[in-house]
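Problem: given the chain below (341 residues), write out its structure.
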Amino acid sequence: MEQEKMNMRQKLEKREHEYLSPYAAFSDCSMGRDVFEEPCDLRPIYQRDRDRILHSKAFRRLKHKTQVFLAPEGDHYRTRLTHTLEVSQTARTIAKALRLNEDLTEAIALGHDLGHTPFGHAGERALDKICPRGFEHHLQSIRVVEQLENHGCGLNLTKEVRDGIVNHQTQGKPSTLEGKIVRLSDKIAYINHDIDDAIRGHIITEEEIPKEYTDILGHSVRERLNTLIHDIVTNSEDRNDIIMSQEIETAMLKLRKYMFESVYLNKKAKSQEEKAEKLLEQLFLYYEKHLELLPEEYLHRMEQNNDPVYQTVCDYIAGMTDRYAVAKYKELMIPSAWSVY
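Solution.
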């Protein structure tokens, strides 16, 4: 009789306690939202967060934001959206194997890069240099979900999801195991898919990657992903932590360093980044002087929250896609042909 009185959400929450690891973040034990909402009768709280992120405008814009290669010729290079999906897939695989909360893991993974700029890290550098308070995309991701999305009302996500988003970088310290999984999965995803894209773009070849790393991790993207994921699962099973073996972690970090030296700082791969940085800097300065050209909702939020002008301009530019930023630059900076007709 008690089971019959439960709605679907409560049944799913009960099932979590029966199946998940004791170290998992249980949905019915969440610290909740800043603004109370009645629970959904179908979806546990983290699944609801996942759905909100998935349906957000910021998430949809990720498909037209650069991952590493700016304006590549070809349809198969990663974008910020496909990077996010690969992080989510890797993180969910690990969470499922360790019997941790997949919904929380996926919500964090899908939301971790919502605050990223157009033109990848080149855009981040530009805004960090010109914005008085600096710019870091993980902090902007939190700003997106707390203040900018949903017409300035935010998504009202749970504390656990927001904690995972803001702590997804190397120096971050997530409070949940699910957040720790995403933090590692982000590195695993970008190292391996950036190798794949760099090979496709003739920046490096598989044979050029030092054997001291590939002999340990594998000689293809598939092999390396398999090695890294298995290592995390094997070393983290039945433990209140997410860890890697010393050998595998060291090889991964050295491979990451190799990618910085050979790809991320490669002049051929980064030939357009200086142009992108200057484009965003000029847009920033122009909008600072012409606030009337900002969308009405940004002006309204600036007045309502008493935000500095530079913060409002930064929010607007950070939310742009690559092609929208280019279109706005052409519209505002490049004279068009004049005609009386």
